[in-house]
Amino acid sequence: MPERTDTRPPLFFWLVSLALLLWGLGGASIYVAYFVETPQQFAQTAEASEHRQAYAAYVASIPAWAIAVGIIAAVTRLLGAIALLLRRRWALPLYVGSLAFFLVALYRAFVLAGAGRIMGGTHIAIELVFVTLGAFGVWFAHANRSKGILK
């Protein structure tokens, strides 16, 4: 008798995929703010009061290519979550690409532009959470692709 392989996703898969979708939507909304808010308004919501002026000046000086890299990271992250919900294999390369673009954006921000000097500890911690969630997205997509859940 041939062994039956059940590739129906468990409830945990759907809950995590939905959470990753919500995270992707939240991340994409950050980049919408670049186009609808002034640097001062953006700094008001993103940074503690003692760092707001310096952070607003930093946001105003971000080059277009760096914003584009962040947008690509956010869009591929969102598409990766959608691919998970559709159970598509291409969720994995989307999450890998998203993490790679996000790391480029962080390198530019922290190494090339020195943003860590003007960000509060909470803001830096949030960036680390984003890296961790990005790595988790890669792992989750890989694990479910290996299990045959993603087709």
Q: What would you note in describing this structure?
A:
This protein has 151 residues and is an all-alpha fold. The chain has a domain at 66-146. Helices cover 75% and strands 0% of the residues. The protein contains 6 helices and no strands. The two termini are 25 Å apart. The relative contact order is 0.15.
Number of strands: 0
Mean pLDDT: 91
Q: What oligomeric state is this? A: single chain
> What can be said about the biggest beta sheet?
none
Structural class: mainly alpha
Spans of at least 5 consecutive residues whose pLDDT stays below 50 are none
What proportion of the residues is helical, as a percent range? over 70%
C-alpha geometry: elongated
Q: How many DSSP H or I helices? A: 6
- Beta-strand portion reads under 5%
Global Rg = 18 Å
The N- and C-terminal alpha carbons lie at a distance of: 25 Å
Helix/strand order, N-terminal first: HHHHHH
Record keyword descriptors for this entry.
elongated; mainly alpha; 6 helices; 151 residues
In short, what is this structure?
This protein has 151 residues and is mainly α. Helices cover 75% and strands 0% of the residues. It has a domain at 66-146.
